[in-house]
Amino acid sequence: MPAPGHLRPVPRRSTAELIADQLRSAIMYGSLAPGDQLGEAELAGQLGVSRGPLREAMQRLVQEGLLRSERHRGLFVRELTADDVRDIYVARLAVERTACELIMRGNRG
């Protein structure tokens, strides 16, 4: 981290990244609920952006698994199955267990 008062480059973020962040947050906090269909025109209007960056942002969320695309129907907020939730908790447990092990090894020194 630079010393106080030193300047450093400002991270540049694209409009699509900013839109993806807002959509991701809306999904996580339930403003966009599982199963909701995302209408491009409505979302572009609400966010005050054009459809190009919105489409790019939504494709990012499809790749992340937060949205699902149905041919000729559109994009929908993904619904988690019981298996999905179980997989998330198994992965989280593995990460947390490993983090605890690393912390404990560091405290032996």
Explain what the structure shows:
With 109 residues, the protein is mainly alpha-helical. It folds into two domains: 13-78, Orthogonal Bundle (Arc Repressor Mutant, subunit A); 80-109. Helix content is 56%, strand content 9%. It has a three-stranded antiparallel sheet with strand order 1-3-2. Strand 2 and strand 3 (74-77) form a beta hairpin. Helix 1 packs across helix 3. The two termini are 26 Å apart.
Radius of gyration from the CA trace? 19 Å
Total number of strands? 3
Summarize the helix and strand pattern as letters. HEHHEEH
CATH architecture of the largest domain: Orthogonal Bundle
CATH topology of the largest domain: the name is Arc Repressor Mutant, subunit A
Cross-sheet strand order for the largest sheet: 1-3-2
Keywords:
single chain; 109 residues; mainly alpha; Arc Repressor Mutant, subunit A; 2 domains; 3-stranded antiparallel sheet; 4 helices; 3 strands
Task: Explain briefly what this protein structure is.
This protein is mostly helical and 109 residues long. It is built from 4 helices and 3 strands; from the N terminus they run αβααββα.
What order do the helices and strands come in, and which of them pair?
Elements: H1 15-28, E1 37-38, H2 40-47, H3 51-64, E2 67-70, E3 74-77, H4 82-106
Antiparallel strand pairs: 1-3, 2-3
